[in-house]
Amino acid sequence: MSTTSPSSTMPARPSTPTLAAPLPLLSTPRAPRSALVTPRTTRISPSPLAKSSTSPPTTSMPRRATLTTCESSPLCSSRQLLCPTRRPGSLTIQLGRYVDYKNITKVIQPGRIIYVDDGVLAFDVLAIKDEKTIEVRARNNGFISSRKGVNLPNTDVDLPALSEKDKADLKFGVKNNVDMVFASFIRRAQDIKDIRAVLGEEGKQIQIIAKIENRQGLNNFKEILDETDGVMVARGDLGIEIPAAEVFAAQKKLIAMCNIAGKPVICATQMLESMIKNPRPTRAEISDVGNAITDGADCVMLSGETAKGNYPVEAVREMHEACLKAENSIPYVSHFEEMCTLVKRPVQTVESCAMAAVRASLDLGAGGIIVLSTSGESARLLSKYRPVCPIFMVTRNATTSRFSHLFRGVYPFLFPEAKPDFEKVNWQEDVDRRIKWAVNHALELGTLTIGDTVVVVQGWKGGMGNTNTLRIVRADPEHLGIGQL
Fold it and tell me: The pTM is what?
């Protein structure tokens, strides 16, 4: 990793009205969704945070300042648009109104750059006028609108890992049984530990996905990876915090490290960006999706394409097709051999079983692997070794069935029957019932065909950590007695 000084950003707080930027007076009053900025000298001042509304169930802890708009001008609409000012040639951002990071004047230095809205607008810092005002010059024309993020690359920001609002959001998530928390701008392993401490015992099952979006997160990625449940390579902000030309190498390195650790990794941001307005992606975008898959990404994510785009369904369809084509080009056998050589030995019993199951599936040309799991750990390790065939995870744990969708190639099957009393019911009989049910379900879905060889991974008794047994069965209703279920 690069040893340059860590970058810091202040992520967006979508529910916090905090920053506005009046612009030169327009010729006629109007209320667009955004306002035009042209290159000129401007002034920026910080403001404290305003109170915000309750966040949605899936939580994200941002660490970046936001833009919002002035509500006092008669030219403002109910959408909180940027307000034209009567003083041409200035962009004044005042204390208490515009930037939610009050120490911005203390950490920024002349010569640095301020980016707004994922780099759409860039401002050169000319001077720090006083504790409330920064003089900047716009580098380019563009549109600016409410609640946009502000990035301060190569600037050490003294924001805490968790604000009071972040803690309230996490507690809200625990109360409402969220499955995952996507933590923005993670800079060190301690940030993950702090989040776990707030989640507490009641939220211990919640998965934490660390979003890597700045230089400091890159530099400390190994320690972050040891603590987190998964990783998102958030290329939007990362491409602002580090040179854009370095993003592709960072993406490949982060994904490779996640693959070796067996942690799910998501590749996100601007994957099919042109489909926000166009019905078809560019060839470069399709190549980008395919490269993310061949790099080893477990998930690829659409954002603006489906959140605000004109062709959300088409975007999903195009990404789906690109993923299928890319998966068919992966050299699975050589990948498996490489992963086996990279793993640190001795391995745990459950990982040894996962390696043996994938090896058996390759040697047998199996149609699928069935794994009986309580915590999802066995399914995660099977996914780590990238079998050609699908992995059918059978569990009675609803939470496990939901978050296991993050694992590449895993089909989570939630077994409908309650756990029996094994003092009265034979353990192996219950195992056989679950295997038969999984085969039957996979046949109905069309992911298995009658006669396929199936590798089964199971434990010798119930509970977590007892996986130690492999079986080879055939997807045959007569052989398994599926018709009797």
Answer: 0.77
